[in-house]
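CATEGORY: protein folding

GOAL: derive structure tokens
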Amino acid sequence: MEIELTRLFTKVIQYGGFSKAAEALKIPKSTISKAVSRLEKETGTRLLIRTTRNQSLTAAGRVFYETCLGPIQILEEAQKSLFGKDNIISGKIKLTAPEDIGTQIIAPVIGKLCLKYPKLEFELKYTNEMVDLVKEGFDFAIRVGRLDQSGLKQRKIGEIEMQPVASPLYLKSRAKILTPKDLEQHECLTLPSSTMSKEWLLKKERQSVRVQVKSQVQCNQISSLLKIAVAGAGIALVPQFLCRDEISEGQLVRVLPEWSGGKPVVSILSPLSTISSLRLNVVSAEIISALREALESV
């Protein structure tokens, strides 16, 4: 079985179809179609279910793709190294991250990388939904919270300190907040479709308290909740790195400063080990450095 047949098969999945793969590789679509058909014939295994509009992997096709993707990319990176080091750090990086982390931390890093490495290309998808990295061809994902077991490479970056904050205007007109339970008498700004929409778990050293909260506003974007809190509508539980400027400028103050809303873990995931590719290694190192700086600074 020729390696080129396998390479073209993986490209169909990575690029999301025969036409897109042909366009990216600058070869006829018929060449790729014939290669996949030949691969299926030689292996005696159906790899793709094709319709007039799209195609999907069979169970055997998915296993074969996930097994071959790493070795194929390693071979491509090795081939690039034959043409000089300037050509190694090139190509597309596809990355997904939560909206707030992506906008506040990752976007500036991508801007710097574009200037430093003009041959790099980036496709960014900011979403709080879980995406299938292998199926959708992502190189990296930034995830917050507990991770399920998977075949992906996982690396812990740090922890997010969640802080309850409110504007001086809101606190001036409301009952004083001396204990976590006092929050139950206040308007809270929460995330929808999550346990945090109805209950906050606050911690102080070895103490922990569960607080039932009511919310006039629910929003899936924490940075929007932050702006609403600045306007004086209630108390928001937000990451420390997001509200740092608002606190230093006096637009927000910490409520119950000795208490925090837990410390969810931030991790980076990748289908491949970044050691196998200088391109992936350089980009992941810059992203990890920026995230750690943001999460650790006070």
User: Anything to note?
Assistant: The mean pLDDT is 86.
